[in-house]
Write a structure and sequence with these properties.
The structure holds four protein chains of four kinds.
Chain A (H helix, E strand, L loop, with lengths): L2 H48 L1
Chain C lengths: L2 E10 L2 E11 L4 E5 L6 H9 L6 E6 L2 E2 L5 H4 L2 E4 L11 H12 L5 H10 L15 H15 L3 E5 L7 H16 L3 E5 L3 H7 L2 E6 L2 E7 L5 H10 L9
Helix pairs in contact in C: 3-5, 4-5, 5-6
Chain D lengths: L1 H32 L13 H28 L2 H33 L7 H22 L3 H31 L19 H43 L1
Helix pairs in contact in D: 1-6, 2-3, 2-5, 2-6, 3-4, 3-6, 4-5
The chains are: A mainly alpha, B mainly alpha, C alpha/beta, D mainly alpha.
């Protein structure tokens, strides 16, 4: 493996890992956000029922 | 009532309990001795290499035995919710920290007092005159271990798999103590004096002082967590 | 001793164990804390003992707000756990002396001796707690709090393990303790016994105080609240 | 309420976009414009990754420390959330630092791993903060987990200088300083283009770091809100 080989390996792994982590985080973010919105929506209907 | 009186009361209670059962002390002692045998079989050291390897072997043996003791440290308090009884009382949490640290220190020192001469006999070492200096180093190292070990033991008290978690969080933090103790012991065994290892000795003292202070200050939060 | 509880609330994970509890207890109050299982009785006692921190609200003892590290307040609070809070491998005597010295109260040998005498354990002072039955352990606990004289004494279902004699001992101790101006709060399912002792009854229902009145005779409002919230409990009019 | 969430989202988007641009410029400078090192050649370009990632890792640990201390003092959930998010990112960037160091080490030292002081120190940091995450996940009660982790976050950070000292002494007393440490200060006899590349990479990593941190923090915050809502329901 030449010098550029090592360099591209390092850059590839680092940015690859960051992108994977970012995608993973995005997915978690979206899941949690949907769950939260669902809960909020049902909360709103419940308080409507009361009034 | 001041910190030291409370520490004394708690320590007396722990020692009394240990004197009755000797659970921790006996297991630690046998485990330490066992490790010496295992090391001997697995390394099969030639006599001239023993003095070189002795510090690392001894200190590793103490580290593992100490961890065994730490896992048992709050055992009496776990039975019958006695920890609650202590937390209920007007007790300074710093005293609890000091008492437990000193208690584990006493156990480890007792084990070390037996295991080191045993090591000298088993491995045919001749440098008996260096033992006082070695004990000093080991004392400082053991204090550092017990101080941080007590904090971590209390921290993992309510965790799942706490016996496994304890060494996992404790050992990386112990790196300065491990390195400093082994280097000091090496220097003493090789040159008969601390020499350039003196800065290691200072590091060891610094570690002890820093974490004793931190421990007394934050044990409030440690034990309530 | 005056105890003021202000909008106290505690959540465990997803659930409110206790919500918006207000209570103001004058000296010599003897409170029967009633409620079905899971109503939050133990949570309230633990909060008062300072063993857990409230999610919201405050507890004041004689005007001082209780915090985790206030030793002066903690010295005032006792928690009688029937067969708990004793070291198994210490003798009865050693347990009492240890706790008395921690509280710096009545830790002389004569005091401990007379406390043991009072609960009928003077003969067994040198036995290990591990060898005692749970009824006898409870008696040791009674002796312990008799020595420590807490301004606020909390009890969580003390009747389960005691024999008839022990119950008499406990009730005698609680009565005299209360008469000295101390506050006693007792959670129990033995409603008739608790009602006889208390001078105030409190019902917890799903984490909220649903009833809080001083005792009188007859007591129709309690009867109504009792039937509403504890319909399957034992009969309390005995 | 929803408006502030929208603006926060927009702000995150802008931060992410900036990070992306900075990373692109950084890549261009470090791979194309900066000249190869006189001794190490092209391999030295890994430095433009290595130094920024270890810097962000240390920044993380500092944030864990600050968040932990604030949490113990004020007991506010947001400080704990910050510490948790920072610890996770710290572990990520430390792991990346070790991988880069290892890839850099192969052509320079001929081995993937050597017990160089820097590499060893980084590995120990990884162990400490992995332990932090383990401790969090192994305590069931959420408040207890938060306080226990906060204690470890503080002690771990206080321990770093001691570990640093001991690991460096350990190496220097046994073997000469590593190739990584030049005899001269790094800013002397360094090509200006190299410095620019390094600076841009630093900025890019910091932007990327704060973008990821804000994302991770918001995940924790929303999880906490969900729990709070569920608690309301439970009553």
């Amino acid at each position: 493996m030449g010098a550029w080989g090592f360099v591209s390996l390092a850059y590839g792994i680092v940015y690859g890992a960051i992108v994977v982590y970012w995608l993973f985080l995005k997915r978690r973010f979206r899941q949690v956000e949907t769950e939260l919105n669902r809960l909020r929506a049902s909360e709103a209907t419940r308080s409507d029922d009361k009034s | 009532m001041d910190l030291l009186t409370q520490t004394y009361l708690l320590l007396r209670k722990d020692l009394l309990l240990e004197l009755r059962r000797r659970d921790s002390l006996l297991t630690m002692f046998f485990f330490g001795t066992l490790l010496l045998f295992v090391f001997h079989f697995s390394f099969d050291l030639p006599p001239d290499k023993v003095a070189e390897m002795a510090p690392a072997l001894l200190w590793l043996a103490f580290l593992f035995t100490g961890t065994l003791g730490l896992a048992q440290l709050f055992q009496a308090e776990r039975e019958n919710h006695c920890l609650d009884a202590l937390l209920l009382s007007p007790l300074d949490r710093g005293a609890l920290f000091l008492a437990k640290t000193i208690f584990n220190l006493i156990l480890m020192l007792l084990v070390e007092l037996v295991v080191i001469p045993l090591f000298w006999i088993l491995f045919n070492l001749s440098a008996w005159n260096l033992l006082p200096q070695l004990f000093l180093v080991i004392l400082l190292g053991t204090i550092g271990f017990c101080v941080l070990g007590t904090i971590m033991s209390a921290l993992t008290l309510r965790a799942r798999a706490r016996e496994l978690l304890l060494p996992l969080v404790l050992f990386p933090l112990m790196i300065p103590v491990i390195l400093a103790t082994i280097r000091c012991m090496e220097s003493v065994l090789r040159n008969g004096e601390f020499g350039e290892a003196l800065s290691w000795l200072k590091l060891l003292v610094g570690f002890d002082v820093i974490f004793i202070t931190v421990g007394i200050l934050i044990f409030d939060w440690v034990i309530e967590s | 001793m005056r105890l003021t509880i202000n909008k106290l609330a505690k959540a465990y994970g997803f659930l409110w164990a206790l919500r918006d509890v207000n209570l103001d207890l004058p000296p010599s109050a003897f409170v029967a804390l009633l409620g079905p299982n899971g109503a939050g009785k133990t949570t309230l006692l633990k909060l008062l003992a300072g063993l857990i921190a409230p999610t919201a609200g405050s507890i004041q003892v004689d005007g001082t707000t209780m915090t985790a590290n206030n030793a002066a307040v903690r010295r005032q609070i006792g928690f009688l756990a029937p067969a708990d809070h004793l070291y198994e491998n210490l003798t009865v005597w050693e347990n009492l002396r240890f706790f008395a010295s921690l509280y710096e109260r009545n830790d002389r040998a004569v005091d401990i001796e007379s406390a043991l005498e009072a609960v009928g354990l003077a003969q067994r002072r040198d036995e290990f707690v591990a060898n005692l039955s749970s009824g006898l352990k409870c008696r040791v606990s009674i002796a312990k709090w008799q020595l420590l004289q807490p301004g606020l004494l909390l009890l969580d279902e003390p009747y389960g393990v005691l024999d008839g004699n022990g119950v008499d001992l406990l009730e005698g101790f609680l009565r005299s303790h209360c008469q000295q101006g101390h506050i006693v709060i007792m959670a129990s399912h033995h409603v008739s016994r608790a009602l006889k002792l208390c001078n105030r009854a409190v019902i917890l229902h799903r984490g909220k105080l649903s009833f809080d009145e001083t005792k009188r005779q007859p007591w129709p409002s309690f009867a109504q609240a009792f039937d509403e919230f504890l319909p399957h409990g034992e009969s309390w009019t005995s | 309420m929803t408006q502030s969430i929208e603006t926060a989202k927009k702000r995150k988007g802008i931060l992410g976009g900036l990070a992306l641009v900075a990373v692109a410029i950084g890549l261009y400078w470090s791979l194309a414009i900066a000249p190869p090192d006189a001794y190490q050649g092209e391999v030295q370009r890994i430095m433009y990754l290595h130094l920024p990632s270890i810097l962000t890792a240390y920044l993380s640990y500092f944030l864990v420390f600050v968040g932990s201390g604030m949490y113990l003092w004020k007991r506010e959930k947001r400080d704990d959330l910050l510490a948790h998010a920072a610890a996770e990112l710290g572990v990520l960037f430390t792991a990346l630092t070790i991988i880069e160091g290892s890839i850099w080490g192969k052509p320079t030292w001929g081995v993937w791993w050597t017990w160089d002081a820097r590499l060893t120190l980084t590995a120990i940091l990884l162990l400490i903060y992995a332990g932090y995450l383990m401790l969090r996940s192994l305590i069931d009660d959420e408040n207890r987990a938060a306080s226990a982790a906060a204690i470890l976050g503080i002690i771990g950070f206080l321990d770093i200088p001691l570990i640093h000292m001991s690991v460096y002494w350990w190496r220097t007393l046994h073997q000469p300083p590593s190739i990584l440490r030049p005899d001269k200060a790094p800013w002397e006899n360094v090509h200006p283009a190299m410095l620019t590349a390094l600076t841009i990479s630093f900025v890019a990593f910091l932007l990327l770091y704060f973008y990821l941190l804000s994302l991770r923090y918001r995940v924790g915050e929303m999880r906490h809100e969900i729990k709070a809502l569920r608690v309301e329901r439970g009553a």
